[in-house]
Design a protein that fits this description.
The complex is a heterodimer of chains A (about 300) and B (about 600). Chain A is of the alpha+beta class. Chain A is built from six helices and 18 strands. Chain B has two domains: about 400 residues, no CATH class; about 100 residues, no CATH class. In chain B, a hairpin with a 2-residue loop joins strand 8 and strand 9. Classes of the chains: A alpha+beta (about 300), B mainly alpha (about 600).
Chain lengths: ~300, ~600
Amino acid sequence: MQLSRLLLLLLPLAGIAELALDLLFATRAPQLSEWVDALPQLQAAHRDGDLIVVAPEWAEPLARQAFGDSLLPLVDIARPDLAPYARVVEVSLFDQHAPELGKFKELARETSGKFLIRTLENPSHERTLYAFSDHVRPNELFVVEWNGEAEHTCEFSARAASSTGGLGGHNAYPRERFRCNGGEPYFVGVTVIDDQRYRPRRCVYAHPLLNGNLHLRFPRVPVGKKVKGYAGESFLIARDAPSEAAVELGIFIDGREIGRRTFKASEGMSGFEFLVPRGSAAPTMEVTFQIQSKAPRDREFCFQAEVR
Amino acid sequence: MSPRPDRWLALLLGALYVALLLVTASSLGYTRDEGFYFYAAHAYRDWFALLIDDPLRALQRAEVDRYWSVNHEHPSLMKVLFAASHELFHAKLGWLAPGTSYRLPSMLLGGAAVALVHHWGARTHGRLAGLVAALAFGFMPRVFFHAHLACFDLPVAALWLLCAYVFTRSLEAPGTFAYRTALCYGVLLATKHNAWLFPFVLFLHGALARVGDHLAEAKRGRPYVPKALFTLALGGPLLLYVLWPWLWYDPVNRFVEYVQFHTQHEYYNMEFLGKTYWKPPMPAGYAWLMTLATVPATTLLLALLGLGVWLFVPDPAHAEAAPPPPAPAPAPERAPVAKPIAHPLPLKPFLVAKGPDPQPVAKATTPVVPAPAPPAPASPPKLLPPRAAPELLWVLAVLVSYAPWWSASTPIFGGTKHWMTAYPFLALLAGRGFQLVAATLQSFAEEHRLRKLRLPLIGAACVSAVSIVMALRVHPFGLSAYTPLVGGAPGAATLGLNRTFWGYTTGSLTDFINERAPQAASIYVHDTALSSFDMLRADGRLRDDLRGSLSIAGSNMALYHHEPHMSRVEYQIWVDYGNVVPAAMLSHDGVPVTWIYERE
C-alpha cells in the first residue's frame, strides 16, 4: 500500500487521537480537592520559616486557596528574593520546577497524588536581621518632611480611608499609614505593587515630596553587614514613563550616608545593596531613608529593604 | 445549485447550531464589550422610538448625534439588530432572557454561517465535505464561544463568508449576483471595520484567477473587471452610509475619525509566550501560533490536505478540457475510486489545460467521491485557472484575513477573534481535504468488501468528534480553551498564553456570589463592564439587591480575572481586604482563570 494512501486512511484516527489527548490534558492538572488532599504531606515537610514555592507558577492561586495564608503568607508571596530563606519547599506539578531553585540542594522528596513535594536547601542563604516593611508603625518609624529650612512630621493614622485605584489607577493606599502634606497620595505605608514581571512586591510606599526631602527614620535597627533591597514603581503604571521620571533614594546610618541610587520609574523594581560600615560596637543603629525627586508628581515610589 | 437534500441539511445544521447556542447561552457570562453594545443598542432603540413618535425631530442633527454618538467607533448595524431582537423577543414576546435576546442576531448569523459553509462545501465537493467543513467551523472552540456573543466578530465572519459566496456566484451569473454582492458588502461594512479588507480578496482573486483573461483583454484594450467589483465599490460604502446615522450629517469628518480610531488604536495588553505586549513591535508569530494552539489540529491537518489537493492533485470537476460535466455519480456504495495522490500535477490551479471558456464549478453530485479524473490535456497548459475555482478564493480569504498580522505594528489584543474571518474558509479547505480522505476510505472499502461499514461516514464522525466534544467540553471557558498541540489549558498556561480576557467569567461565579454576598452587597467587578454585570441581574442570574462596583475599597466581594498585567488589581485587593486567600476559584482544566475574595 502506498504510504500516502495509508496516511489518508489513518487520518480520521488523528481526530480520535486528538480527542483522547484533549480529554487527557483536561484531567492532568489537579483540581482543588487534590490540592487540599496534599496539605498534610506539605505540612509535614514544612518548618517555620520555610518558603513554599509552587511550580508551575500559574498554579499558585490554587495553592493559596488550598493551603491558606499560614503556609503562604503575603510576606512570602510578595518577597524581595530567595536569600532570606534557608529552606524552600517546592510543590511541583508535571515534573516542572521553579527555575530560581535550580542551584538549591535537594534534601527530600516525596509524591502526594499528582504533586511532587521537594525540600530544598538554599546555598546562598542570608539571614534577615530586620525587614523595614515590618516596622512601619509608630515608635519604630518616624517620617519627616524636610524642606531645607524646617521639619514637619507626618502623623500616623491607623484608620485612614483605604483607597484603591484599580487597573490603571494608583496603588492600594492602606488604612495604616503616615500621612504627609500634599494630599492623599503623599504618605508612607506598606502596600503591594507589581514589578516588571507583574509579580507582587510588598514594599514601603513613600511618595516623594513636591518640595523637599522625605526622611524615614528607623531608630533601632540591629546592626548587620548590609542593607539590601529593591525599589521602584508599579510597572504597569510607570513602564512608559519618561526617563526623567525617577526617584533618588539615599540611605544613612547614624547620620552618615552609606549609599545613594536613582530609580527610573519605567524600570519596575531594581536592586540595591550598601554595606554597613564597621566600627560601632552598639547593637543597634539608626537607619534613615531619604527620598526625593526632581519631578515628584505621581511618583508612587516603593522600596523593599532588609538588614542582612 | 446543490441538490435539494443538501439545502435542507444546511438549513437543519444552521437551525440545530442556533438551538445549541441558545441552550448553552445561559451558562456564559457577558463580555466586557457586550456591556457597551447593550448600552449602545439601548440608545439606538430610543432613537427609533423617537423616530416613530416625532420623525422630524428624530431626523434633526442634534437628535441623531445625541443617540448615535454612543459607541460610534463601530458601525451600528449589529447593535440595531441587537436592539430589535431585544424588543421583539424579550420586551414584546417574553421568549428570551434580556441578555440572550440581545445575543440572538449573532447566534442567527452563526447558524447561517454554518449552513452556508455546508452549502458551499457540499456544492463544491460533496455532502460529506460540506458536513465536515460546517462542523469544523461551527465547533472550533473559539468560534463556538464567539457565536454566543452580542458582538461583531462572528457576524463579520459570517457576512464575509456570504459576500465571498455571492461574489463567486456572480462570476457564474454576473447579473443579479453582482448587485447582491454589493448589497452583502454594504451590510458587511456596516458590521465591523475588518470588512474593509474584503475587497483585497476579490482584487487578488481577479488578478490571479484571470491572468490569461487580463492579458487577452488588455491586448484588445478592454481590461476585464468583474461587474461585482464595480457594484461593490459603489454600493458597499453607500449602504454603510445609509445604515449608519452617525455619518449622515458629517460623513467625511466622521468617516475619517472612524478610520483613525482603528488605524491608531490603543495597544491593549496581551500575554504571549510569557511576555505581555503592550506596544510595538508585536510578536511576528502571534496569529499563526495562536491558530495552531486554538484550532483543532485535525481541522488544520485537513485544511492543509485540502490546500495540497487543490494545488497538486488534478480535479476533474475543474478541468476545462474535460468532457461535459460528469454524469451524476452513483450512490456512495458504488462510487468510483478517487484518483490517488500519486500523480500530482504541479501548481495545478495555474496550469490548467487550454480549452474553451471555463465552465462554472461543476456541482458535486455525490456526497463522497469526486468523479474520475479526466483524460490528460491534449494541448499545452496555459496560466489560467477555471473561472470560479472556489479554492483560490478560499485561500485568499484566509491569507487576507491574516494579513494584518504580518505587520509588527498590528495590535494583538483581540486574541484569535480578529482573524476569525479566515476560519470558515479554513473549514472549507478542511472539507476539501476530507473529500480525498473519504474517497480513499471508500476505495479501501470497495477493495476489501467493507462497503456496508460506510467508512467515509465513520471518517467524518472521527474528524468532527474532536471539534464538537472540545467546544462543548470547554464551554463556557471558550477563551481559555487550548488544543492538545500545546498541552491543553495547562500546557498553554505553562507556555504563557493568555488564560482569559473580557471579564465574562463572572457569569460562572454567580451561584457563589448569590449564596455568599450579604444583602445589598457591593461587588467589585474588575474586568467585567458594569452594564454586563447589570445584565446578569436583569437575567435573574444575580440577586437583584447586589450592586456592581468599580472600587475595591468599600466592596464586600472582589472579583479578579487573571491576566499578568492585571495582577496589580489583585494586589490591591490583598492590601484592602487584608487577605490573600481566594474564597472561590474558577479553574478550567485545573488552570486558575478567575477568582473572588470576600471581605472578612
